[in-house]
Amino acid sequence: MTSWLCAIDHKRVGILYMLSALLFFLAGGMEAMVMRAQLAAPNLKLIAPETYNQMFTMHGTTMIFLVAMPVLTGFGVYLVPLMIGANEMALPRLGALSFWLQLLGGVLLYFSFATGAAPDAGWFSYAPLSEKAFSPGAGVDYWALALLMIGSGSVGSAINLIVTIATGRAPGMTMRLVPLFVWMTLVASVMIVFALPALAASLVMLLSDRLFFASFFDPAQGGEPLLWQHYFWIFGHPEVYIVVMPAFGMISEIIPVFSRKPIFGYPFVATSTVAIAFLSYGVWLHHMFAVALGRNFLAVFAAASMLIAVPTGMKIFSWVATMWGGDIRFTTAMLFAVAFLLEFTVGGLSGVAFAAVPVDWQVTDTYFVVAHIHYVLFGGTVFALLAGVHYWFPKMSGRMMDEKLGRWSFWLIVLGFNTAFFVQHFLGLLGMTRRIYSYPDLPWFGALNLISTAGAAILVFGILLFCANIAMSFFFGTPAGDDPWNAWTLEWAASSPPLLQNFAEVPEVRSRRPLWDQKHPEAPDWVVVRSDA
Amino acid sequence: MTRDRAQLGMAMFLMSEAVFFFLLVLAFRYFAPLPHLNSRNGWLLTILLLTSALSLWRGWRWVTIALGAAFFIGELFFLGTTFFVLADIHGLHILAGLIALAIVPASALRAMALYWYFFTAVWLVILLVASRA
After folding, report:
1. What are the structural domains, with CATH classification, of chain A?
2. N or C terminus of chain B: which is more exposed, having fewer CB within 10 Å?
């Protein structure tokens, strides 16, 4: 127990990140189920309206800051040193500090429930609603302080990953040869370093307004509420890519292995990631199209937002082209990866629709937005994560996950997710606004909401089955061996689970698939690469 | 190698801080009335901090800490009369820097020097912005 509390080894810190994220995932899921129960039928009054506001605020904040970011950081911290042939993160104690900052920030956020004043101004806490005059309770203060802690932890872990990737690579592993998961973790980390301070600046100003009588967001005293929106979304849009980039990276590792082909267009997948990162800093106004901003602003930001679809589409094509003509093995991990492709594309398409300003004006703040973000973040990030868990669990635990249970949970999650969220597109188009506590019995509203709630229940069942699979496989799974998938990257050269020192000796890396070279000395990748270059 | 890692890590951290202070200074410049720092006290403090940065460049750790502490106390007492969030946040970073300077091993001094130069520069920017307000 003490050895885990004091852990600085990257594998232990990584697992701590993942376990804490799983815990908060269950909490955030319960909040979602409370909301879906309240919305199951028109004019229901299961919970108080104030409680409902707390539920959607805590659900959003939890899923973004306490689930998506930590679990991706956890995978990064666990896998990056193994993938680049290092034995440790570059700054191990910073790694432990970052984790505990993140966890204690989460504890602080949830402590607000105990005081009876959970935050209730939404996960983006728009001013002036979040100002003292309209949110007099301590909830928003807890929210802001907790996010400052969590954000500091994220920046710390991002710096650690950047320094590790910059200085810890095995001999011969140039940046053109690192696995794509490492590439995308690097890009996401750089984005964290440049985006999180915008959130920190917003939070400092909000706290100054609330606690120290400043007036940044108070127009009566020369402040400007829109400043909050600008600063929050300067952080907030890159944040969307921060929580999806490493997921892209996982997909880029899993699809090639189960298609028995190297990734199609490695340079395009890597550089399109950098393109997305740059573009993501120039699109924040598309969260603010409903604010009167002037036609030229709208046109520029609409164009930039649509432009992001190009590098993202390139990736989708690369993954599909990797599968094309491959010898595909539909393991549970691969099933989740393929479902990711389909669902993320749905979320991407509704995203492009939003970039068209008139469409945005029509559906902004409706359930269409809720459907879109869940297709991107659940259909995208979470499905990639589920693929990643099934793929790397044998490495982390030394045991295989049960394929039969895996398939059951896969189909339940796919069915539940799509039932819950696809109908919300229609609810949005019909005009149901998000964040309302209850709704009148308008045509279709009751039926579609009931379908959505039923889907959410199926989804919960699937997730619980997945958790049960993890627990059972951890104790009773068949031993995995070092390389159960016949994969190509260096983490599969370490033992399962890896020893404290990952590698007794690190081979010189000469291609993108060092383990392939080791297994096939008669036809190593680097021969082909060299003759190309 | 360890030294390189510490410096690279510090450089990344300071980039994050640069964005943070850029956005804060921007917001202060436009939305909040700034007190006049263009006073005798303001310049005295500036000289203290610049001298401390110079002494750290020479490698005199404890001289830096003494001068930095004098700056920090001055920042608290001379500027505290007008409430001024930006200076307070800068002051918190100076305090954290003083603690770090006092406890880090000698191998980390070069990384800490980066930190100290950076927040000296941030102070100059704050002074510049406040003088023009």
Report:
1. 1-215 (1.20.210.10), 244-502 (1.20.210.10), 504-533 (no CATH)
2. N
**Distance between A200 CA and the closest CA of chain B, angstroms:** 7
Which of A205, A224, A226 best probes binding to B when mutated, by most B CB atoms within 10 angstroms? A205
Chain A nearest CA to B83, separation (Å)? 9
Look at B12 and A200 and tell me if their CB atoms are within 8 Å.
no
Nearest to A503 by CA among A527, A474, A528, A482: A482
Task: Write down the pLDDT at residue A533.
Answer: 40
Half-sphere exposure of A323 (CA within 13 A, CB side): 17
Q: What pLDDT, in 10s, does the model give residues A237-296? A: 999 999 999 999 999 999 999 999 999 999 999 999 999 999 999 898 889 988 878 888
Cβ within 8 Å, pair A194-B27: no
Band (pLDDT 50/70/90 cuts) for residue A532 is very low
* Interface probe with A: pick from B2, B7, B31, most Cβ of A within 10 Å: B31
> What confidence tens digit (pLDDT) does each residue in B70-82 have?
999 888 776 654 4
Q: Is the pLDDT of residue B32 over 70?
A: no
Nearest to B85 among A197, A214, A227 (CB): A214
Average pLDDT of chain A to the nearest whole number: 94
Bond into A70 cis (ω within 30): no
A250 vs A273: CA distance, rounded Å: 13
What does pTM read for this prediction? 0.95
Rounded mean pLDDT, A468-491:
96
- Number of Cα atoms under 13 Å in the Cβ half of residue B121: 11
Chain B CB contacts of A204 below 8 Å = 24, 85, 89
pLDDT of residue A522: 87
Residue B92, CA distances (Å) to B71, B88, B95, B100, B102 in order: 12, 6, 5, 12, 16
**Residue ranges per structural domain of chain B:** 2-132
Closest-CA distance of chain A to residue B131, Å: 20
Judging contacts by C-beta atoms under 8 Å, the chain B residues touching residue A223 are 31-32
Q: DSSP assignment of A280-300, as one string?
A: HTT-GGGG-TTS---HHHHHH
pLDDT for A8-17, tens place per residue? 999 999 999 9
pLDDT tens-place string over residues A102-160: 999 999 999 999 998 899 999 999 999 999 999 999 999 999 999 999 999 999 999 99
Could you give the percent of chain A with pLDDT greater than 90?
Answer: 86
With an 8 Å Cβ cutoff, are A222 and B20 in contact? no
- What pLDDT does residue A530 have? 47
Distance CA A121, CA A203 (A): 14
A94, A191, A192, A193, best to mutate vs chain B, most B CBs in 10 Å: A193
Give the DSSP H/E element, type plus range, for residue B13: helix B2-31
Is some CB atom of chain A closer than 8 A to the CB atom of B1? yes
Which of A91, A200, A213 minimises the CB distance to B20? A200
The domain covering B2-132 belongs, at the CATH homologous superfamily level, to Cytochrome c oxidase, subunit III, four-helix bundle (1.20.120.80)
In this structure, are residues A233 and A288 in contact, taking their beta carbons and an 8 Å threshold?
Answer: yes
B84: three-class secondary structure by DSSP:
coil
With an 8 Å Cβ cutoff, is B109 touching chain A? no
pLDDT the model gives residue B78:
62
* Residue reference for tokens 């009335």: B33
